[in-house]
Amino acid sequence: MELGTRKAVAQLLVMQPALSASGQKGCGSKGRSGKSSCGSAAGQGDLSPEIWEKVKNHPCYSEEAHHHYARMHVAVAPACNIQCNYCNRKYDCSNESRPGVVSERLTPEQAARKVLAVASNIPQMTVLGIAGPGDPLANPEKTFKTFELVTQTAPDIKLCLSTNGLMLPEYVDRIQALNIDHVTITINMIDPEVGAKIYPWIYYNRKKYEGVDAARILSKRQLLGLEMLTERGILCKVNSVMIPGINNHHLAEVNKAVKSRGAFLHNIMPLISAPEHGTVFGLNGTRGPTAQELKALQDSCEGEMNMMRHCRQCRADAVGLLGEDRSNEFTTEKVMEMDVHYDLELRQAYQEDVEKQRAAVVAARNEELKTLAGNESDITVMIAVATKGGGRINQHFGHAKEFQVYEVSTSGAKFVGHRRVDNYCQGGFGEEECLETVIRAINDCAAVFISRIGNCPREGLLKAGIEPVDRFALEYFEQSALTYFREYLERVRSGEIEHKQRGDADIRQGALITT
Ligand code: CLF
Ligand code: SF4
Predict the structure, then answer these.
(1) Are 114 and 305 in contact (CB under 8 A)?
(2) From the CA of 235, which ligand is nearest?
(3) Least confident among 108-122, 428-442, 459-473
(4) What is the pLDDT of residue 23?
(5) How many whole angstroms from 260 Cα to the centroid of ligand 2?
(6) What one-character-per-residue DSSP string does 105-174 give?
(7) How far apart are CA 218 and CA 269, in angstroms?
(8) Residues lining ligand 2, judged by CB closer than 6 Å?
(9) Closest residue (by CA) to atom 8 of ligand 2?
(10) What's the CA-to-centroid distance between 140 and ligand 2, angstroms?
(11) Is the entire prediction scored with pTM above 0.90?
(12) pLDDT tier, 304 (very low <50, low <70, confident <90, very high otherwise)
């Protein structure tokens, strides 16, 4: 690496809080691989080199990558050809995060400039996704034009598409020709009777279909599109929204159907539903699942195929690591004024540095795992972590807008999901009400790892039976979780503490506040 590039990389590392251990800041629906390790944190595992190349820096297709790499969406696709009962695209709030919601709609040219602007400023942004705010394939010209422009100007960026699948069979050849290597299809049912409760209508071949007829056509087209893509070696992820009382028992069947058609990853996401969203499910009181309901379904499907558990149900204009949203830094007005300098060499050098840090995280975890060898125990413990990325415990309790949750056992630390919260520290003061919601969100955890915490929240957490742990501040969290767990087992064996299975936790509806 040349000296100038080295200096620039060092400067960028300082600018990216996720990669700097001390980087503290002040107070959509949106090849046949079989079972492999992609959805886990195990790195390449048993993936072929070809598949690994495709997923290694894709934050959605690799759980491990999502701690280090970012994605961005461009909202070029306003129209939709179906109606889902959990979607209301009229709703637009910059404090709201769920698929379909967006602040600005872009032309392909504006979108391509935005991609360059983000790529220049966030060198770990490796993936461009088009996920709405409607359906990308109901807006094919805008979608494909955007991908074409980006391929010409930023060739190292992976292209990713998320669709409801209705028009997918028509566009498989075009997707392949453009080297779009990652396609997500939202499949919530394979039984039209179930589908009729989720989709009131679809618009297909210039005709409106309703109820069971609509769901039958949609399902057929989704499964056909999936088969056509996987036959061409395009990596497919299936997103399914878990809707208690409607498809929660049916999703295991969906899981089998998509696995048999070559889907690489299955992402079962909780329904986001609140009356203020103005959706059918929000207004008729259909609730989302609890944390343990979601985990139980994901666990039951995991024997069948890779499960994604780190989805943040992003906005159609999201920018940044999955747990953050930097879209406010890249509004059209700001992007037009930015000095955009896309430097491929600098981006590659930066990503080489990311890979070194990533390897260090894995090595530290594997070393610690060895210390658990010979420990036989059925005990599992859930641990919440406050992190800004980079695999480290690098966030104050009061600043956390989400906690990442790991299930730790003698076989290792497994990521089981994230929990959104309102940050406890508001304008320099702790909010008691927020503490209650944080406790409910991580109620299934025995401990919460943070870089720092004040006395009031510390006492509140202890009272709720959750141990606040700040002694691993700035350390790697997987390694720290294993150390904590080994000591936990020793404390249980010595009689110092009694192991208790903890209760269920809330999944927060919506709100990831933009930074
Ligand atoms: Fe975007 Fe989707 Fe591509 Fe990822 S999101 S188009 S696959 S780059 Fe990822 Fe966001 Fe979940 Fe989607 S966290 S909503 S799964
Ligand atoms: Fe909304 Fe259409 Fe996406 Fe359904 S497919 S969530 S209706 S944008």
Answers:
(1) no
(2) 1
(3) 428-442
(4) 30
(5) 25
(6) ---HHHHHHHHHHHHHH-TTEEEEEE--BS-GGGSHHHHHHHHHHHHHH-TTSEEEEEE-STTHHHHHHH
(7) 20
(8) 29-30, 80, 82-84, 87, 89, 99-100, 132, 134-135, 164
(9) 134
(10) 15
(11) no
(12) low
